[in-house]
Amino acid sequence: MGKTLSREDLVAMLLLNGLNIEETRIYKDLERQTKLKAAARLLNMGYSISKVAEAVDLSVEEITTEVVNSQTQTEQEDRTE
User: Does the reported pTM lie above 0.70?
Assistant: First the structure.
């Protein structure tokens, strides 16, 4: 099995290629997923979409599309089972 790279090794490799970790697609994807999960939790706690959008630095449209619509779809699927 291959060697697992440490965070320091990965950062060093990226720096050699003129990148920093925040510029990578995987970092951006993970950051967005984290924001969406936080948004879902805040919405479930009763915060308004506009306050949640402000808190997680996403647009109201992104939260509506990614969080609210997926929650609605999940609830509909749960009711049909």
Answer: no
